[in-house]
Amino acid sequence: MSTSTPLPPEALDDWLVALAAALELDPADIPVGTLLDVARDVAHNVARPAAPLSTFLVGLAAARNGGTVADIEAASARATELALNWPPDEPANQPGRQPGDAR
């Protein structure tokens, strides 16, 4: 059953436990605050739709680098730094873009 009503903030822990179990993960290994901070910084400094994509990429990078909480935090720090400095000063920093390209 699908619903368009978002979870109330107090239901976040229940959702985390249920999803972690479904994905065979330990909820204790998920730095929720760090991931929410990444999502916030990306949403505010890049674009709202970039937030979930960014947290997915943080998780993917962390998994490829060992999958520890420290790996998640390191990937999160990189994502946050990039988001807080977005857009880059030099168009050359954007793969596939040329100076003068429209956003």
UniProtKB/TrEMBL annotation:
Region (Disordered): 81-103
All copies of domain DUF6457, residue ranges: 8-89
One Pfam short name: DUF6457
InterPro entries the UniProt entry points to: DUF6457 (IPR045598)
Record-given protein name: DUF6457 domain-containing protein
Species this chain originates from: Cryobacterium sinapicolor
Taxonomic placement: Bacteria, Bacillati, Actinomycetota, Actinomycetes, Micrococcales
